[in-house]
Structure formats: structure tokens, C-alpha cells
Write a structure and sequence with these properties.
By secondary structure, this protein is an alpha+beta fold. Helix content is 12%, strand content 23%.
């Protein structure tokens, strides 16, 4: 089993080099298989520093070595704040995440708006150590903190018409410089059974603290068996619908970014291979795992589907 309960010999993030030792200096690392070479991470610190109380250790974890906090919080894709990996940590510094409400609507019996403080009380906050695989062929291992998405969806009672869940990010041009070719607000979606799967979570923190702005504060989606762009950030609207919703990357380039976006070493991106990946902080590439190593848990969701056509 890839996912397991923490064992006594497993690495804890307290064993990782403390993040303070990474502040105010550069750390070079190899990027992904896009032939980007060694990239210098900026001298930025994350904005978030508030410790999250009452967090329980989840049985959903992996024993992979954690990616250092510094790298997780300064090597980000968040196009609303820029296209370079270091841009979000710089440009999201003053992004306002309070007050914040999330509207949950559509094919539900009890539509409502949730304040972020209400979401924090829906279920016990869990720390889940997940692999994070970017479509660009780099990866991380992150100790996310959050709640199962299913706990939120059950409160609004999806109707029989609900087959998919559509997500929308906040877009505020006064706070976000906007970059790249995407249209905003950013949109994503899951099938309802994917959304209700116990691995799917709403993340509100990482490394024991409140989620930094550049990582999608105050609330982001985490779906560990899918490519990272499915993990929509700064969510302010969730809508349950009867047909497959439009998503940002699929709308821009459907041939390159399918709706399902499951990690699959046998289906290459049109411009690069997905067979290998580079873990941030490591020099050598490693084999990409089908479903990012979560096949035992999620393969049944796609029984009978051609995953080369439904990519």
C-alpha cells in the first residue's frame, strides 16, 4: 500500500532542515523535464506564520522525504500572481484573505455561503502528507492541513442531478497582476465521485501553519492523484452541476490539458514526456507513478475507461 499509517521510522517534518535556515539565502535546484536547468529560488519568506491548533495526524500519509518548507512556499504556479515560479511569493504578499466566504450552490438541497472560520469547524483538521506532481514533470511532498471535501459537500446535500463539482477562484485585478494566456477567474472541476473520494481535501494550511498566500490561501483543493493544476487555489465558489464543467487549462488548450488530468506515465504531454519526474531538491529523475502512487485507492473510479482518451 502506498498510503499508510505513520510508522515509528518514518520521516517527520521536524526532521527536515528548519525553514529558518533557508531564509535570506539562495538554494539552487533542478527543475522538471522541460530542460530548464538549475533554478535559483528567491530570497522570499512566506507570509503565513500562524500555527493551526487542534490538527490531528491522518492515516493518509506517505513515507517519502518531505520537500523543505522554503521550496514549497517559493516554487509555485499561481498565474494570477505571475508566470515565473518565484512571482507568487513576491506578488501575493498583500493579498487579502480575510474576510473570506465560499458560496456552495447549484444542484444541492441546501445552498449556502460559508465563512472560512465555519469551514475550519466542519471536521477535525488533518495533516496529510501527499505527493504533489506538476504537469510540468516536477514534484514535491507536502504536509497539507485541511478537511475532506466530502464533509463540506454533505452539508449542502447534493441532489440526484449533481454529477460534477465546478470550482472557481477569486479574481481581483486590484490585487492580482494577472499573467499568461489564461482567462480569469480560474475554473476547475471534478466528477462528483472524485470530489467525494476520501483522499480529496480542502487544504487550509501546510507545515502546521495557515496556508501562505502563494500556495492558495485561504482555501485550495488538493487531489493527490491528479496533476497539480487541478488543485485550484483561493476558492470562493463551488457549484454542483449535471454536466462536465469548463476548466481553465482545458478551455485554453484541450489537447494538452484534459479534464481528468490523472497522473499517467503512459500519456505524454504533447511537448514533453511524463514517464519521469524530478523531485524538487533532487538531481536525478525518478519514475512517474500511475495515479501518482495512489492507484490502490482511486483506480476503481475509472474502471472501464480508456485513460488515453480520457486523459
Amino acid at each position: 500500500m502506498i498510503i499508510k499509517s505513520r510508522q515509528p521510522g518514518d520521516l517527520r517534518y521536524s526532521q527536515v532542515t528548519p525553514r529558518e535556515q533557508y531564509l535570506n539565502r539562495r538554494r539552487f535546484l533542478s527543475a522538471g523535464s522541460l530542460a530548464l536547468g538549475a533554478l535559483a529560488l528567491p530570497n522570499q519568506t512566506a507570509l503565513a506564520g500562524t500555527k493551526l491548533e487542534g490538527v490531528v495526524k491522518s492515516s493518509y500519509t506517505v513515507s517519502d522525504k518531505l520537500t523543505p518548507y522554503k521550496d514549497v512556499t517559493t516554487y509555485n504556479n499561481f498565474y494570477e500572481f505571475g508566470t515565473d515560479k518565484e512571482d507568487p511569493a513576491v506578488n501575493a504578499r498583500n493579498f487579502r484573505t480575510s474576510p473570506w466566504t465560499i458560496s456552495v450552490e447549484g444542484d444541492v438541497a441546501k445552498p449556502r455561503k460559508f465563512d472560512i472560520s465555519e469551514i475550519l469547524k466542519i471536521a477535525p483538521l488533518e495533516e496529510r502528507i501527499y505527493r504533489h506532481r506538476c504537469v510540468e514533470a516536477w514534484s514535491m511532498v507536502v504536509p497539507w492541513i485541511g478537511i475532506p471535501l466530502s464533509a463540506l459537500l454533505k452539508l449542502v446535500e447534493p441532489t440526484a442531478k449533481a454529477k460534477y463539482v465546478a470550482f472557481q477562484s477569486l479574481y481581483d485585478p486590484r490585487q492580482m497582476p494577472r499573467a499568461g494566456a489564461l482567462d480569469f477567474p480560474y475554473m476547475e472541476g471534478l466528477r462528483l465521485d472524485e470530489a467525494m473520494h476520501p483522499l480529496t481535501m480542502l487544504s487550509v494550511g501546510l507545515y502546521g501553519e495557515v496556508l501562505p498566500n502563494q500556495n492558495g490561501a485561504p482555501l485550495r483543493l488538493t487531489v493527490p492523484w491528479k496533476y497539480g493544476f487541478k488543485g485550484i487555489k483561493s476558492i470562493n465558489r463551488i457549484r454542483l452541476v449535471g454536466s462536465q464543467p469548463s476548466t481553465s487549462w482545458n478551455t485554453m488548450a484541450a489537447r494538452e490539458y484534459g479534464f481528468y488530468s490523472n497522473v499517467n506515465p503512459g500519456v505524454d504531454h504533447p511537448r514533453w514526456s511524463q514517464a519521469k519526474e524530478r523531485r524538487i531538491g533532487e538531481f536525478f529523475k525518478r519514475d512517474t507513478l500511475m495515479f501518482n502512487g495512489y492507484g490502490d485507492q482511486v483506480a476503481g473510479l475509472y474502471s472501464g475507461m480508456d485513460l488515453k482518451k480520457n486523459y
